[in-house]
Structures are given as structure tokens and as C-alpha cells.
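> example.struct
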């Protein structure tokens, strides 16, 4: 029996998502939560197979980010984000937080949601079969909350970065191991969309990490193309 949490403060939307899930997989258990406090309490005591959540809950614009971080610390349950926030900005941010996928409200149909949800459910079932107990994240891993200033942490220490630099870091980390082009990085900055400005932001990011870890070398410059985040054994 699968158990799913729907975390959405708008009751009609929550009921619609619940109805789609129940129709897609009869017999599934769907629990609805409407506030951050109730959702975090449920996550602390329950093991869900999938969590569907909105980023903005009530007056908390980024409550969903805190909930995703709580999920990652406890169970690593796959998360499908359904939000009105613009996908062009928030999809890469949610990916950096290890959310499974991001659907922007009013831009998708029931079939899109159901297809994505069932794919996540299948992946969750396969993961349970092959990895019944997920290992704890290593202490040296980068932890991101790119919607709050000064929120990324490196080896448990806070990295002091302005918001634009956080967004660039999130974009790099979301595609770690792959080259992120200048054009892709232009999409996450609001102004100064030129290569010199991007390089300045990268320099700021490196300097901030090296204040905590003088040996940090996790961002590669790929000449004429862009930059790449690399997980180097023994970093720090």
C-alpha cells in the first residue's frame, strides 16, 4: 500500500491533486496537509512514498523549501513540486534541492501530472527494492537552500553568498558533473547578463568557499563554454 502526502494550502487545489492521485492508483492512501507546521510534523512521524507540495504555504513564500530540506534530512522521499512560481527560475532551484520534478500551475493538464506522478511512484518502488536503507549524506556534502541569503552550507558551515550567487551555485550543483553554459547561467540572473558578470559571480562563490575551505576546487572553468561543478574526492 502506497502512502502519499499532498502539502497544499489551497483546499480546492489540494482536493484536485488528491482526486487525480486516487484515480491514477486506486487503493493509494493520500494524506492532506495545509500548513508548514502540520506538514513537518507529519514528515517527522510518517514514511511517505511520494510527497506532492507547493512552495508557498499561507504567508510563508518559501515554506516548501524548508519542508524539502526536512524530507531530505529524514527519509529522502521523492518530491513533486506543484507551484505557481515561474518554472524558468524555480525548476533549477528545486532540482538543486533534489526534488524529482517541478510543475508550474496553470501550465499542465491532469495527464501531465498523472504521468509524472506514476513515474515517481515506480522509481520510489524500485529504490525501495534495491536500497531498503538509504545511507546518511556525507558531512562534506554541499547543502543548499538557494531561496534564502547566506543559506548554503559546506561541511556544516554557512557559506556567505548574495542571492544571485546562490542561484548560480544552485544551477551548477543541479547539473553537477556537466558543463553549465553561459546562456544557462544568464537565465538565473536578473541583470548583468554577460560573461564578465558571470565570471565575477563565480569568483565570488569560489572566494566564499575558500574562506571555509582553502582547498576548495569544486568549480571548473570550461573555456568558451561555461562552468562545471565537480565532486572531488578529498575536497576540504
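> example.seq
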Amino acid at each position: 500500500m502506497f502512502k502519499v502526502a499532498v502539502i497544499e494550502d489551497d483546499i480546492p487545489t489540494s482536493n484536485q491533486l488528491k482526486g487525480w492521485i486516487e484515480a491514477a492508483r486506486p487503493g493509494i492512501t493520500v494524506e492532506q496537509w495545509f500548513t508548514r507546521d502540520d506538514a513537518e510534523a507529519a514528515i517527522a512521524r510518517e514514511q511517505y512514498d511520494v510527497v506532492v507540495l507547493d512552495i508557498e504555504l499561507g504567508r510563508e513564500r518559501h515554506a516548501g523549501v524548508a519542508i524539502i530540506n526536512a524530507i531530505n534530512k529524514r527519509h529522502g522521499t521523492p518530491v513533486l513540486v506543484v507551484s505557481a512560481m515561474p518554472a524558468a527560475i524555480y525548476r533549477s532551484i528545486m532540482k538543486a534541492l533534489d526534488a524529482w520534478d517541478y510543475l508550474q500551475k496553470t501550465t499542465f493538464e491532469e495527464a501531465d501530472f498523472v504521468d509524472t506522478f506514476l513515474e515517481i511512484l515506480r522509481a520510489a518502488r524500485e529504490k525501495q527494492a534495491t536500497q531498503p536503507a538509504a545511507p546518511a549524506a556525507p558531512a562534506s556534502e554541499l547543502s543548499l537552500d538557494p531561496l534564502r541569503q547566506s543559506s548554503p552550507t559546506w561541511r556544516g558551515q554557512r557559506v556567505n553568498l548574495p542571492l544571485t550567487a546562490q542561484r548560480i551555485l544552485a544551477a551548477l550543483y543541479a547539473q553537477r558533473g556537466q558543463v553549465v553554459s553561459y546562456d544557462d547561467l544568464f537565465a538565473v540572473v536578473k541583470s548583468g547578463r554577460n560573461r564578465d558578470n558571470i565570471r565575477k559571480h563565480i569568483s565570488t562563490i569560489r572566494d566564499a568557499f575558500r574562506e571555509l575551505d582553502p582547498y576548495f576546487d569544486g568549480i571548473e572553468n570550461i573555456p568558451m563554454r561555461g562552468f562545471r561543478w565537480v565532486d572531488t574526492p578529498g575536497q576540504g
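> remarks
Residues 3-130 form a domain with the Rossmann fold fold (CATH 3.40.50.2300).
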